[in-house]
Amino acid sequence: MLVFHPAVATKMTHLQAGLSVETLEKAKVELKENPETLHQDIQEVRDMIITRPDIGFLRTDDAFILRFLRARKFNHFEAFRLLAQYFEYRQQNLDMFKNLKATDPGIKQALKDGFPGVLSNLDRYGRKILVLFAANWDQSR
After folding, report:
1. Which of 103, 115, 116, 130 suits a disulfide with 110, CB 3.0-4.6 Å?
2. Tell me: domain 2-97, CATH 1.25.40, correct?
3. How wide is the angle at C-alpha 63 spanned by C-alphas 119 and 22, nearest 5°?
4. CB pairs under 8 A, 24+ apart, for 22-26?
5. Which stretches of the chain are DSSP H helices?
6. Please, are residues 70 and 33 in contact by the beta-carbon 8 Å criterion?
7. Closest C-alpha among 70, 54, 120 to residue 130
8. Which 8-state DSSP code applies to residue 11?
9. Nearest to residue 31, comparing CAs of 68, 4, 71?
10. Could you tell me the end-to-end alpha-carbon distance of the chain, in angstroms, rounded to an integer?
């Protein structure tokens, strides 16, 4: 599939469907995302899973792995490391994730209360900073 824009003509995969031309260009420039090698990039991360048989990787679909590649600017090793840490943490804290659902009234209320928040400034690596406003959270609810 080709997306045409006066300034940009970009080949797009189904994993990039729904992204604006501006977002696709930003992903290409800032994250080094290349639609020509996207499936190969994902497969390289997926292939590393066998190196960690101690972790139960519950999701290994393309869209899920792509999130970790984007978070680590398509550095395969760093993306895998983050993916492994994510599932390792979930595995070590099963009780915390057992009934965690975005539709849960408590979760919805926490989000309404301003928990969590994102700072407008980035850290020294250009990443967003997540802040938890615990003082705004009414624990009596």
Report:
1. 115
2. no
3. 55
4. none
5. 21-30, 38-47, 62-71, 76-92, 94-97, 105-112
6. yes
7. 120
8. E
9. 71
10. 49
Amino acid at 33: E
Bridge partners of 118? 130
Q: Which residues lie closer than 8 Å to 49 by C-beta, 6 or more apart?
A: 57, 60, 80
- Tokens 């967003």 belong to 128
List per-residue pLDDT tens for the chain, 141 residues long: 444 444 444 566 788 888 888 988 888 999 999 999 999 999 999 999 999 999 999 999 999 999 999 999 999 999 999 999 999 999 988 887 777 777 888 777 776 776 667 777 888 888 888 877 666 666 676
